[in-house]
Amino acid sequence: MIIIGIDPGIARVGWGVLKIEISNSQMTNVGCFETSKYDPLDQRLLSISEFLKELFNQYKPDCVAVEQLFFATNAKTAITVGQARGVIILTASQANIPTFDYTPLQVKLAITGYGKADKNQVQQMVKNILKLPEIPQPDDAADALAIALTHAFSYKLQKIKDKL
User: Do residues 142 and 14 touch, judged by C-beta distance below 8 A?
Assistant: First the structure.
């Protein structure tokens, strides 16, 4: 199974591709797509969609895992990130790829076992789980891999439950 994890944003969209096999998870590729702050919002959203179409065509994922939004202070940022997240889900839907949502708490619990883990703890665990030589950069890319791993763990758990 191929999972693409996405850390949504308007300026930066982190992405990570995992190939999941019965006994292990392997990172295929990881990166961060950036839009220019000088472009109008509609162009930035279109750029995100076009990039994702290419990414989906290249890797042919079975599913896409996207982080849910959590913003406590900046409503303007939350709205634009929400718009980017909507474009991400729409683009996956247009490609007939199912999407799954995970909150930051779910990601922290799945990756570290601790809901109050900090960003560095999550990134260190991503590095360890995938046996990477270093933490993927930038942070958005590492976060995207954490989201993809969260789905992989949830998927495996569901398969076990289905067999019971």
Answer: yes
